[in-house]
Amino acid sequence: MKRKIALVTGGYTGESVISLKSAAVVEQTIDRELYEVYKILIYPGDWHYLTDSGEKIPVDLNDFSIQIGDEKITFDGIFNILHGSPGEDGKLAGYFDMIGIPYTTCDQLTSAITMNKGYTKAIVDDIEELYIAKSIQLFENSPKSLDKVNTELTLPLFIKPNNGGSSIGMSKVKSWNELPEALEKAFVEDTQVLVEEFVSGREFSIGCFKGNGETTVLPATEIVSSKEFFDYEAKYVAGVTNEITPGRMNEEEIERVNRIIPKIYEKLNCKGAVRIDYFLQNETGKFYFIEINTVPGQTETSLISQQVRAVGMEVRDFYTQLIEEMFT
């Protein structure tokens, strides 16, 4: 008998658009000989399944079931492709834990911690061969915060919403008079903002996942952007960024990255597929951790999909491994 899988998408943030695009690809690609797939859309106060005829079937939140005619559909597991809140920040994970349904992504604690860039960096800071740019975590947009940044950090700077995704609200600051506007932009997106010194280097993004009981590091993708940094436009507008998979690293760099990435995955107690962004500093070649994405995009051109294909694996089989791993 086929397992019933709920494909969870939508969301409460601006990333919902990307979630829907990812879900469309997963829905088309997933192995239908093994799984019955039901796409569940989650919006504030509106969790539902949309039938082929356009009928909106509400989700019973007592057990995350749906009623189609006389049949009550319950799910064996959740394929979580909901970027941002509540799918990536631990809220959904906590809910599924309480009602006893397994899911393909990290648990509640890991999801909540890794959504916070500053807290994540504090946890991985002691990993051997891993470096972190000097930074300050701000909790209010005030003259005192401006003074703190001015006193403790050196230009240029990156300003990031601490819990945000898809580079929304992110800025690069080259002069002190640009800082107030950049902070205001970031604080619109979040109550916490991370300000960090710029690291000059080649940027990479690499997938890592657990399947068949083993942790696999995929080939890294090198990000060569015509923009100054890998912002929302660079990520999602065609032609702005050149993505090279596998990225251009020498043998020593590949070996070193492949040592560091599983340590990050293990240290943060990750599950399923994650994507880790990093720099190799221009002057030294040092590995500088940027951030981790615990619900990486799954569009046709997404970095994870490119990397899976680069090792000769079908994306369909990759999804099967993620699904089966949650039942182990």
TrEMBL record:
<dbReference type="InterPro" id="IPR000291">
    <property type="entry name" value="D-Ala_lig_Van_CS"/>
</dbReference>
<comment type="similarity">
    <text>Belongs to the D-alanine--D-alanine ligase family.</text>
</comment>
<dbReference type="InterPro" id="IPR011095">
    <property type="entry name" value="Dala_Dala_lig_C"/>
</dbReference>
<feature type="domain" description="ATP-grasp">
    <location>
        <begin position="124"/>
        <end position="324"/>
    </location>
</feature>
<dbReference type="InterPro" id="IPR011761">
    <property type="entry name" value="ATP-grasp"/>
</dbReference>
<comment type="function">
    <text>Cell wall formation.</text>
</comment>
<dbReference type="Pfam" id="PF07478">
    <property type="entry name" value="Dala_Dala_lig_C"/>
</dbReference>
<protein>
    <recommendedName>
        <fullName>D-alanine--D-alanine ligase</fullName>
        <ecNumber>6.3.2.4</ecNumber>
    </recommendedName>
</protein>
<keyword id="KW-0963">Cytoplasm</keyword>
<dbReference type="InterPro" id="IPR011127">
    <property type="entry name" value="Dala_Dala_lig_N"/>
</dbReference>
<keyword id="KW-0133">Cell shape</keyword>
<dbReference type="InterPro" id="IPR013815">
    <property type="entry name" value="ATP_grasp_subdomain_1"/>
</dbReference>
<keyword id="KW-0067">ATP-binding</keyword>
<keyword id="KW-0547">Nucleotide-binding</keyword>
<dbReference type="GO" id="GO:0008716">
    <property type="term" value="F:D-alanine-D-alanine ligase activity"/>
</dbReference>
<dbReference type="InterPro" id="IPR005905">
    <property type="entry name" value="D_ala_D_ala"/>
</dbReference>
<keyword id="KW-0961">Cell wall biogenesis/degradation</keyword>
<keyword id="KW-0573">Peptidoglycan synthesis</keyword>
<keyword id="KW-0436">Ligase</keyword>
<comment type="pathway">
    <text>Cell wall biogenesis; peptidoglycan biosynthesis.</text>
</comment>
<dbReference type="InterPro" id="IPR016185">
    <property type="entry name" value="PreATP-grasp_dom_sf"/>
</dbReference>
<dbReference type="Pfam" id="PF01820">
    <property type="entry name" value="Dala_Dala_lig_N"/>
</dbReference>
